Amino acid sequence: MAFLKLNEVSFSYPRQDRPVLSGIDLALEQEGIAALVGPNGSGKTTLTKLMVGILSPSAGEVYLEERSLRNFSLAQIGRRIGYIFQNPDHQLFCSTVAEEIGFGLKHRGWPLDAITERVKFLLDYFELTPYRKAFPLHLSRGEKQRVAMAAVLAPEPAFLILDEPTVGLDLYRKKLLGDYLKKIARLGRGTLVVSHDHSFVQNTADRVVVLERGRIQGCEKTKGQETR
Ligand SMILES: Nc1ncnc2c1ncn2[C@@H]1O[C@H](COP(=O)(O)OP(=O)(O)OP(=O)(O)O)[C@@H](O)[C@H]1O
Fold first, then answer.
1. What distance in Å separates the CA atoms of residue 151 and residue 108, rounded to the nearest whole number?
2. Which residues approach ligand 1 with their CB closer than 6 A?
3. Cα of 33 to ligand 1 centre, how many Å?
């Protein structure tokens, strides 16, 4: 069973003559790491927004675990799919880094000691411990990216969608992120990464979906899969 399935999905923004996406058929499993690549403006971000219900298709249907996404509230989708925006500023709103990472857990009713332990682990893993009391929006681009990532990963959603997660990350931190995604993939979590970072995609993803001018041009295997 595909975790997410798009059936003949097309999408046009209001007051635009041409559809941004046309006839998209795609199935994503709840394990492994898929990458979505393509030139600027090919519709990658739009496609991910359709997958999490921020946008609705103009035609066709998106299914989450075989139920139409139209039957889910945004909150219900948010509990199944963690979404990391291209710009981390769009998802940081707490007054400290530690609160930001623990926010989703608190919201889901995790006990306080479990929240403290999980936040501590993620602060440590993403090397954010020195910034735990800092105001997230005052951090550097790469630090904000790591906070957003830790906050979305904290509740361990069944599936993750990351839009350009390596922007602002140095080589060492890209590797840490890649290792983390591979680790959660081994635990049965699926991931879709939108990225222009060729080496990150090649080293991290099992499968690459190529989007061009709003259409899927093909799916490729990567060398990352051969070495796993
Ligand atoms: N809110 C919007 N209203 C109207 N047009 C939009 C809107 N958002 C995106 N577009 C247009 O839709 C097309 C696809 O944009 P999208 O951001 O999905 O592409 P992308 O492949 O993610 O690009 P990039 O690689 O530059 O991030 C572009 O031509 C863009 O200008």
1. 13
2. 13, 20, 38, 40-46
3. 23
Type of residue at 32: G
What the block records as the tokens of 160 is 């993750």
Between the CA of 64 and the centroid of ligand 1 the distance, in Å, is 23
CA–CA separation, 140 and 156 (whole Å): 25
Q: Which letter does DSSP use for residue 215 in this model?
A: E
Cα–Cα–Cα angle for 196, 198, 202, nearest 5°?
130
> Which amino acid, residue 199?
S
Token pair, residue 227, equals 């070495």
Cβ 63 vs Cβ 69: under 8 Å: yes
- Report how far ligand 1's centroid is from the alpha carbon of 41 (Å): 5
Report helix angle 141-153 to 112-125, nearest 10: 140
**Which two tokens mark 139?**
């951090």
Domains of the chain: 4-227 (3.40.50.300)
Q: Is this structure's pTM higher than 0.80?
A: yes
Q: Which residues contact 57 (CB under 8 A, 6 or more apart)?
A: 9, 10, 11, 50
Per residue in 168-219, pLDDT tens?
A: 888 988 988 898 888 888 878 899 999 999 999 999 999 999 999 999 987 7
